[in-house]
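Project standup — Tuesday

K.O.: blocked on the structure for the chain from last sprint. Re-posting the sequence here as requested.
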Amino acid sequence: MDAIETLQNLLKRLPGMGEKSAARLCYHLIRTDDSYNKALAEAISQLKEKIHPCPICGCYTEEEKCRYCTDTERDQTTLCIVEEPQDVLSIASSGAYNGLFHVLGGAINPLGGVGPENLSFPLLMKRINEGNFREIIIATNPTEEGDTTALYIRHLLKDKPEITLTRLASGLPIGGDLGYADKLTLARSMRGRIRL
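H.V.: unblocked you, prediction finished:
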């Protein structure tokens, strides 16, 4: 196996990267400046060393705690629950939400072998029990797994009538992924969220 084939095979393992896209990217890197390729390789190699989940919310950070958990200007009474760390960035960049976040690390998917015990529900409940939240927004993806996860969260919070539980409104496509939604759609969904 030669260097081009090895790189193409590695690139094909990236999400959304098919055979042709991997080949196109591979040949682009061959034509690119060596300093860029070295900087890219260095950035990739340091990713796992520098980035870790925030111990409070689960969002990725280089610091001890993430910027959302340490920002005292954020609304401390609202918590938005998402599936993955990249969903935090998608919602935060919409400009429609200024509260705190909690990353579950996925969604309940019994067929895929992911149950509640595989997600960060214990940390979520600890935060809720120790916090002063008035509203919890469930921002799981509009999929069967996301809906199942939302129902499970509703079940966990059934004895907390003082907390308003909401879910993102329509505007996000069914079967879609928050990471691919545009800012306007996310902002509209956040403003139009409904009680669950």
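K.O.: great, moving the ticket to review. The CA atoms of residues 169 and 192 lie 5 Å apart. The chain has eight helices and seven strands.
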